Amino acid sequence: MEKFLDLISEEMQQAFEAAGYDRELGKVTLSNRPDLCEYQCNGAMAGAKRYRKAPVKIAEEVAEKCGESRVFSSVTAVAPGFLNLKVKEDVLAEYLNRMRQSPKFGLEMPQNPKKIIIDYGGPNVAKPLHVGHLRSAIIGESIKRIARYAGHDVIGDIHLGDWGLQMGLVITELQERRPELVYFDDSYEGEYPKEPPFTITELEEIYPTASGKSKEDPAYKERALYATLKMQNGVKGYRALWRHIMDVSLPDLKKNYDNLQVEFDLWKGESDVHDMIPAMVEDMKAKGYAHLSDGALVVDVKEETDVKEIPPCMILKSDGASLYNTSDLATILERMRSYHPDKLIYLTDKRQELYFEQVFRCARKTGLVEPETELLHIGFGTVNGRDGKPFKTRDGGVMRLETLIAEINEEMYRKITDNREISSREAQETAKTVALSAIKYGDLSNQASKDYIFDIDKFTSFEGDTGPYILYTIVRIKSILSKYAERGGVIDKSLALLEAGSESEKGLMLEIAKFNAMMEAACEESAPHKVCAYIYDLANAFNRFYHETKILTEKDGEKKAGWIALLVLTRDVLETCIDVLGFSAPERM
Ligand code: ARG
């Protein structure tokens, strides 16, 4: 279905043509002055030079041609040459009725859907999740859902950090404590125990202890590095311990992501491509891309047009060890072979921007990807506390994700049960649902690249640009609809929206009509904040309408049914939007 803006642009283009001007000038845009008009066209200003005419003259001529318009109820030429537009109520109602009947409210599906892999989450096995991982998970999940809704074939991969020093640290600390374990006996030939030698609670303590020791004691760090190397090189006992660490950590990670309603299609990680590295490196050497520099193997990735220094991409360290780079390059190779994606999207902290620039250039130069494969890194800003510094716990430690979520859940529970009788089980469920909206909306409503302040009071507020406000609006609509049904009203496809009878009703309808243009842009630009901005406007428009309209007590049954249809559509659009943002609304709150 055409976008509403295209539908009215078409009408304006015809008017430009009829007045003897280039039809391209008739592009309509959203209004910069909502107090004066609903849409506007700046084509007369753009055409003034070319036609050597005062823009307002052109605008007047075009306005004249709109006299009989079937789309516009008013077209006014105003100085210095803008065209201010209002659309006819019946055209708007007809458009919304078509939206209601069409799949995905008429959002057009791509002719050539893309296969996209999104690499997000990126937790490090054995290390606790912290707020930095929160952003990757929240933004990545939303970008995935938006692209999927927009008709693309999307695979989400968690890309575990499961091959690094943290594994060696855990193994080293374990050896300190229990050197008698068979894993450390080089001559051991038997089967290793099925049961891991630690629980998740122990593991959660082992890693920070080991990490602390390695910072104090260089010899300890050396041992951990060596243990990492032995594990990577396939020493049997070390690999068995690696498996145990994975088996104990993954269910815990899964639980954390489940709580956030973040779902990955693939649970692959750095370890999955380890075996591909030697052949990949050989190939880079054989084709002359990689060369030695100070003992390390590197690929030059600088280009003539660079305005800043782009250092070479390091493939192997001088001791032959592979790096974070190497495993990302091998992962690209693996993804291309297994899935043939058209596009790869990565979500990490924006401090990794230069890093990804190097990796992408290297992948292109060495032919790991096709020339037309799109590679996109979305770098997000830091989560700050109210003091503007990176978010920390009260005693200054790194904030663990679980602690943070628990705090918000508590605050939400307190708000929901304040002065109200609601069974505690239901209140707890509702608090969790609303808390998730608070966290996710608080993050997603900012442009990803910006830092933002994690402000629990603000995020959990039922007023203002927040998740709870959006949910509150949805719940309000649901409650009107269920009262309507309780009183014998029928809610089905036969209901039809009528022409708006008030400013606020029209305002709401105009917001809904923007849905597909918004969703298309949010997908193209991987920009969940556009969905947030849209639903905030939509919720405001709905609440304005609600406060001015006595819906349930309306005597005129047909009018009332028309409003119910409008409410159903508003609810459905809002719920679709929060679903792509990655949260949902309760039935009541
Ligand atoms: N594990 C990494 C970290 O915690 C993030 C991984 C991001 N993805 C990637 N393909 N490099 O910083």
Structure description:
It is globular, with a radius of gyration of 29 Å. Strand 3 (72-78) and strand 4 (82-87) form a beta hairpin. The strands form 4 sheets. A 4-stranded antiparallel sheet has the order 1-2-4-3. A 4-stranded parallel sheet has the order 6-5-10-11, with helices on both faces. It has a 3-stranded antiparallel sheet with strand order 7-8-9. By secondary structure, it is an alpha/beta fold. The protein starts with a helix and ends in an 8-residue tail after the last helix. The mean pLDDT is 95. It contains 20 helices and 13 strands. It has helices at residues 4-18, 43-51, 55-65, 89-101, 131-149, 165-177, 200-216, 218-232, 236-259, 277-286, 324-339, 353-365, 401-417, 424-444, 456-459, 467-486, 503-513, 515-524, 528-548, 557-581, and strands at residues 28-30, 39-41, 72-78, 82-87, 115-119, 153-157, 290-293, 296-299, 313-316, 343-349, 374-380, 383-384, 452-453. Bound molecules: arginine (ARG). Residues 119, 122, 124, 159, 161, 328, 346, 348 line the site of arginine (ARG).
Topology:
Blueprint: H1 4-18, E1 28-30, E2 39-41, H2 43-51, H3 55-65, E3 72-78, E4 82-87, H4 89-101, E5 115-119, H5 131-149, E6 153-157, H6 165-177, H7 200-216, H8 218-232, H9 236-259, H10 277-286, E7 290-293, E8 296-299, E9 313-316, H11 324-339, E10 343-349, H12 353-365, E11 374-380, E12 383-384, H13 401-417, H14 424-444, E13 452-453, H15 456-459, H16 467-486, H17 503-513, H18 515-524, H19 528-548, H20 557-581
Parallel strand pairs: 5-6, 5-10, 10-11, 12-13
Antiparallel strand pairs: 1-2, 2-4, 3-4, 7-8, 8-9
